[in-house]
Design goal:
globular; 11 helices
Length: 258
């Protein structure tokens, strides 16, 4: 495994990056625990629903697998198949959360709500752009350790600063707190981009230029296809259980065959 040059600056940046990453993972695992065992403590009450927290748990597993396993290995071996296979899986597992469980405006304020919506469109567009361009493994590296990692990096600070205005009384006393929270997480977003671009996180590195591009075998293509089809079916099945047959089911006459 390759590493970036070790300097005093890169050691500090790597430490901060790692702490934020682990902090975000801890918050995610804690939310899963709260959803199953202590729903009254959840910041987002929607995850008090048993099916909703199962959807979130599945998404958390897919994100972690892409960031910690599939993404780094596909970069190391220069495998486009596994790289984009992992990212497609992440995207599919994200749709239910964005569609049904997004309460960022209510939990953190409208400014952060708009920011998250902008980020979603920006990041999807950037992935499409990079996928459509000629292969550039440095771009793939940046997408992984900046955009995918940011799903964890801002979670801890965002939750911490939200405690400054998490009641009507606190918000009235600190009307500036939601804007401060947005400034903090936006700063993390920008500084992470700069740190990754300049390769200041020691263990996050683009692949060696001398490494040949991995040529996927047929069994790999079939396996990646099967995994993504399986993830899609699991996600759709969980959403079906969560939403039920839908409002159109009321249009079916009671006497119609089931």
């Amino acid at each position: 495994m390759n590493f970036s040059p070790v300097t005093a600056g890169s050691l500090v940046i790597t430490a901060v990056y790692s702490v934020l990453l682990l902090w975000g993972m801890f918050v995610g695992v804690r939310q899963v625990y709260q959803g199953f065992c202590k729903p009254q403590d959840l910041l987002n009450p929607l995850f008090g629903n048993r099916q909703a927290i199962k959807i979130f748990t599945f998404h958390l597993g897919v994100v972690s697998a892409d960031l910690l396993v599939c993404g780094p290995l596909s970069l190391h071996y220069k495998s486009r198949l596994w790289y984009w296979g992992g990212r497609i899986a992440l995207l599919m597992s994200s749709f239910p959360l964005a569609s049904y469980f997004n309460r960022n405006p209510q939990s953190f304020g409208k400014l952060i709500g708009y920011w998250v919506r902008f980020r979603n469109f920006f990041e999807i567009s950037l992935h499409i752009l990079v996928a459509a361009m000629a292969i550039n493994w440095f771009h793939y590296y940046v997408l992984l350790y900046w955009l995918v990692a940011y799903r964890y990096l801002d979670v801890g600070p965002r939750r911490l600063f939200q405690t400054l205005y998490n009641t009507p009384e606190k918000k009235a006393a600190r009307p500036w707190a939601p804007a401060l929270n947005w400034v903090v997480i936006t700063t993390i977003y920008v500084l992470t981009a700069l740190a990754i671009f300049h390769q200041k996180v020691i263990y996050a590195v683009p692949p060696d230029a001398a490494t040949p591009i991995h040529v996927a075998k047929t069994w790999e293509e079939l396996l990646v296809l099967a995994i993504n089809v399986g993830i899609a079916l699991i996600v759709w099945g969980m959403m079906r259980k969560y939403t039920g047959p839908g409002p159109a089911a009321e249009l079916i006459p009671p006497s119609a065959p089931q």
